[in-house]
From TrEMBL:
The chain crosses the membrane at residues 12-32. The keyword Transmembrane applies. It comes from the Eukaryota. The lineage of its organism: Eukaryota, Fungi, Dikarya, Ascomycota, Pezizomycotina. Its cofactor is heme. Keywords: Heme, Iron, Membrane, Metal-binding, Monooxygenase, Oxidoreductase, Transmembrane, Transmembrane helix. InterPro entries: Cyt_P450, Cyt_P450_CS, Cyt_P450_E_grp-IV, Cyt_P450_sf, Cytochrome_P450_monoxygenase. Belongs to the cytochrome P450 family. PANTHER family: CYTOCHROME P450, P450, PUTATIVE (EUROFUNG)-RELATED. It comes from Penicillium chermesinum. The keyword Transmembrane helix applies. This is Cytochrome P450.
Amino acid sequence: MDANLLAAVPNANVALGLAATAIALYSLYSYLLPKPIPGIPYNAAAAKNLLGDAPDMFRSVIVTKEIMAWMAEQSRKLNAPLCQVFVRPFARPWLLLADWHEAQDVLLRRGKDFDRSAFSSDLLAPAGAFHIRFKTGDQWRAARKWLTDLMSPNFLNNVAGPAIYARTQDLVGLWQLKEKLAEGDTFSAKEDIDHVALDGILAFIFGEKLNISATRAQIETLQRCELRLDIGRSLEEKYTSFPHGCLHEFLQAASQGTAVIEQIINSPMPNWTFWWMKKTGSYKDTMCTKDVYVRKQVRESVARMYSSEPGEASQIRSAVDHIVRRERMLAEKQDRQPDFDGQQLIDEIFGNVVAAHDTTSSNLIWILKYLTDMPHVQDKVRTALHKAYPEAASEGRQPTAAELVQAKVPYLDAVVEEALRLSPISVTREALHDTELLGHHIPKGTVVFLLANGASFLDPAFPISEKQRSASSQAASPNTWDESVDLRAFYPERWLRNDESGNVVFDPTAGPQLAFGMGSRGCFGKKLAYLEARIIVTMIAWNFELLPVDKELSGYGATDGIAHRATQCYVKIKSIRR
Ligand code: HEM
């Protein structure tokens, strides 16, 4: 054979090898590129990037800390009520639905098509066997049976309300002390609100007599600071800071329980983060502390139950008392031994603490900010309260717990609702099988974010032809309001209307609201959250004037985790003397 030809054979082999490698690499690259769902708008540049939209999202979230704002922005940029983003590399796209009418339909009427997503269940992995993580089915129903009637007016008015009221009195005491120590200066209210929300929820879960309290721990610390030795002013002399109270280990575990979930939610690789977290000593300590404490409370409640007369309702002083009675009753019905020590029951109890704590405290923090920055709203709240509790006002005392749980104060309810409307976290659902949304084919397993901060909530709704909507959506009549009233403004009046007798009433259905989700998987604790907000805001507005604070301390930035949480909440308080 020709020598040149012989030399060319290896070269040809090398070339062939290189070409094959290039083809293989290109195929791998194409395989790993985001896979858009046909017909649904997306960012074209992101579809050509192995990391999809992730780099853009991280750039934005590093600055704003608000992933929900980034999502709403994508829907606006793509000008689409349904769009897709590629946030997790090499995974399916997430769908973003920005339409109140269709979101309501998914949540209320399409439970067979969409359910709790594995995605959100994974983010809440540290909550263990808490029912929020289950798909709708037998396990979920079994857990909900323990909770039946906890949100009944009877339980809320006679057990939860008085317990939360008692804990709110501690906050009033703390702020009277802080006002004196700060000599009228501004201070951060975030931790105080966080603590009173935790104390309130724990009093609901474990009873008013629970002997641990984050607020009282703070009071004890401050009582030792009478000489102002430990009290500091910030460098810029903008606010006074106080030393922190020393929290009971269970209170620390409760706060830590929220913190670990937030860490997972904000991780680019949640499953890995959780895997790593579980190996750390601090995680194990937190889990062990909360399990031991909750079990102890359950055992004490069981002992009280067996030592009281059967059916003696007055013995039920907490959610745990109620849950252990339900477990006993269910066990009898199912002909089995009650399992008071089981991990699922313990996870259910602690899960409710976590679900309730950060969400309620975030809502209260936003309310305080709005009341501080909008004195006319604050005045209106106080006027409404004086009208609702005329005896307390004329006798120069605070409204009692019994008065608080009974009264209707439409303007206060509207303020709470409006704060919730402006600070939602979007709920997610997962397609249970191949289905359709706004006329598009949606593959099984796709995660859909129902944006509560996009079009038809904070921006005017997208025009959508009725034909695109599902049959159940077309059949329903949506509640919507005048979108020409600035949807981003804090305007409680949008939740008020006149009834047939001309009285002003609060109308929770006046317009789009997704703060609690909806339907059978909507928030279980919604009524308790309203009750807690009503009690705490009433007691604050009744006892203190919230004076304006420096503009620099009144930002509206937030972080997204379990809740959409304001970064700043400073107050300058003046006791109202009667
Ligand atoms: C302002 C306060 C609160 C807000 C904004 C809030 C918000 C939410 C949201 C958005 C969901 C998901 C709903 C869905 O997927 O459709 C949810 C679920 C849940 N929330 Fe709340 N929540 C609050 C207070 C509470 C409280 C006080 C409790 C307990 C006492 C609670 C217990 C739960 C539970 C157990 C679930 C899961 C329901 C299920 O999966 O079946 N939440 N909450």
